[in-house]
Amino acid sequence: MAFIKDTIEKLKQTSPAQSEFYQAVEDVLESIEPIIEERPKYQKQGIIERLVEPERQIMFRVPWVDDEGNVQVNKGYRVEFNSALGPYKGGLRFHPSVNAGIIKFLGFEQIFKNALTGLPIGGGKGGANFDPKGKSDAEIMRFCQSFMTELHRHIGPNTDVPAGDIGVGTREIGYMFGQYKRLVNRFDGVLTGKSHLWGGSYVRKQATGYGAVYFAQCLLEDSNETIEGKRCLVSGSGNVAIYAIEKLYELGAKPVTCSDSSGTIYHEQGIDLDLLKRIKEENHGRLHEYLETHENAQYTSREDYPDDGHCVWRYKGDIAFPCATQNELTDKDAQALLENGCRYIVEGANMPSTQGAVDLFIESGVGYGPGKAANAGGVATSQLEMAQNASMLRWSFDEVDCKLQSIMRNIYRDSKRTAEEFNHPSNLVLGANIAGFRKVADAMLEQGVV
Ligand SMILES: NC(=O)C1=CN([C@@H]2O[C@H](COP(=O)(O)OP(=O)(O)OC[C@H]3O[C@@H](n4cnc5c(N)ncnc54)[C@H](OP(=O)(O)O)[C@@H]3O)[C@@H](O)[C@H]2O)C=CC1
Ligand SMILES: O=C(O)CCC(=O)C(=O)O
Predict the structure, then answer these.
(1) DSSP 8-state class, residue 127
(2) What pTM did the predictor assign?
(3) Whether residue 309 has pLDDT greater than 90
(4) Is residue 375 a part of any domain in this protein?
(5) Does residue 413 belong to any structural domain of this protein?
(6) Total structural domains in the chain?
(7) 113 is in an annotated binding site
(8) What is the ipTM of this complex?
(9) Tens of pLDDT along 208-252?
(10) Is residue 389, in this structure, part of any structural domain at all?
């Protein structure tokens, strides 16, 4: 469609050097063509042009002092992308690769993901090019305090509610919340992913990983299969990967891989989850330490793996769960997975597959759950945390888990039904994109040109 092509070209000129952002936009715009043709009002009212432009972008300096007394400076970001459905909602990423384009891609994805949950939340994302690796606890605290010293002016429980993402977990949320409270003198639900000792929701920590596995359950059920007994390939070893592995074990599957940015573990007996939690969650360590306990596991370091892409995807497995980062699963990896008989790919990470890999999955007819649908359990449970904070109530673990399961089932059904409605019954990329887009676009129409 010429109009879509023109919009993307214009975006490349007005927002130069933001390749991940263009990739995310192309993915959505190309799959919503059928509904744009069906409802010319979207085009007439400038919905697409407005959607690809964030409502507000905040960039700021984050100065902090390291343990040697040196002043360090990082770049901080918050992109408030779209508030048609509710307050801006989305995580904060602390990683050296963070830049405006990466935050915009994540914020753009978040709009449609949040819409798919069916809950009243808009889309936003933020972060900093800060590298938490190798930093002391005191350095992390000073950085988080400085970051919040600027961010607090822009957020609020009914305005914009950040949470965690790569490099931001319960510890960082705690330091940021402490600083927020000190600055505004209020205890409110301005952040999610809080410790459940002081306002956090049960299941938020587990929610993205568990949610991805619940989504996989729905996908397999449609082919009269179950998770039980399946060999699973998982990448990453952070929050999402750990709790995907935990739920896979609970459902009788066997996860045999995990990874970090330095290398990959393959363990034929199944990943030792307690050990993984100890290394990564408790000690913030490196994955090669796994071998100190399990000499019979295989470790392939990033340097010893000559190919582009990710070593995890070269093993044999029934279901693949990319749970590390964007574009970690390349065209070649996708080819290798298909040749090795992998039948399902369910994305725990945001945009982990390259566009070529996604095309291959769709053409081949394997079951493919795109990230914006499959990993929406995290943000959905964040909204459940907001609801508990607003009502000053606290729900039990089982209550929240039950709601999470039902939300994931609804996301799957909505994506599947929409794919069928537009005559591509097994294309959940198209189904999820149109289902999410329709909710946001209709709300924007009703709210006028703003
Ligand atoms: N946390 C959440 O609730 C949600 C997260 N997501 C997405 O899930 C993914 C993982 O997030 P999360 O688990 O929270 O983050 P964590 O920081 O807890 O873990 C990230 C994991 O990915 C690895 N990783 C990061 N960057 C790279 C890279 N460039 N190459 C290889 N491995 C890498 C990290 O390795 P290392 O330790 O070496 O850095 C680590 O194992 C991200 O795409 C995130 O956006 C999506 C929805 C919600
Ligand atoms: O919990 C949240 O608000 C956001 C989670 C997140 O960053 C994501 O869904 O990518």
Answers:
(1) E
(2) 0.98
(3) no
(4) no
(5) no
(6) 2
(7) yes
(8) 0.98
(9) 999 999 999 999 999 999 999 999 999 999 999 999 999 999 999
(10) no
